[in-house]
Amino acid sequence: MTKGSLLAAIGSVAILGLMGWSVSGTKAKSGDPAPHTQTSDASNETAQSAPSAADKPQAKPATAQAPDQPEATDQPSATAAPDPHIALDQPERRGPVTHLPLPRYVSLKGRTGNARRGPSLSHRIDWVFTHPGMPLKVTAEYGHWRRVEDRDGQGGWIHYTLISGVRHVVITQKMVDLHARADAKSEVVARAQMGAIARLDRCTRDWCEVDGEGAEGWLPKTEMWGVDPTELRD
């Protein structure tokens, strides 16, 4: 099974699709090899756990916006106006190892990656990711390990050397149009099938530009997974 790729052209519109797969991985079986024989885990468990380029975030954080003001009514307000000196934003959560934001998006670096029940080789494998570039969400950190999940919530603990900071997204709708600009009225330059994986480029408030092996275009954020709704990228 391979990652999403450029399959064919219909007229002048390319189709970004996938080659015979529709899930992000496989559930580990009881007959899988013992943990120490797995080739999809890190080969060097004594590596330093300092933040690496694989964990480096690529996204530009969105500018925080104040909440909308309530509409005026004839009834007196039951609550006092907010104090402008009080910060309304919640503090950003960061990982205890890398000090990078949690959660954050990364991608699978190699062809496969074992997701374990806990952060060590002694824990059993619950899930095996099988598609290079698959977007994953990091939700926790412990030493050399990162707890990740895919768009369906499947996952577990994976060694940090198996993930990359190069961002990808997965298409979540059956067939979507890639536009020449971040505008639904702009020219359709390609189409993408559900499950196709594409590299993430720029993002505006509602749209992102993606690249699927030569097929480039803009998609609404609502048609992909692997990017935050408020994320901006230059």
From TrEMBL:
Keywords: Aminoacyl-tRNA synthetase, Ligase
Polar residues composition bias: residue spans: 36-51
Classification via InterPro entries: DUF1058
Gene Ontology MF term list: aminoacyl-tRNA ligase activity
Entry keyword annotation includes Repressor: no
Composition bias type Low complexity, residue spans: 53-70
Keyword Transcription in annotation: no
Source taxon at top rank: Bacteria
Gene3D superfamilies found in the cross-reference section: SH3 Domains
Region feature Disordered, mapped onto this chain: 24-103
Name of the protein this chain belongs to: Aspartyl-tRNA synthetase
Source organism of the structure: Thioclava dalianensis
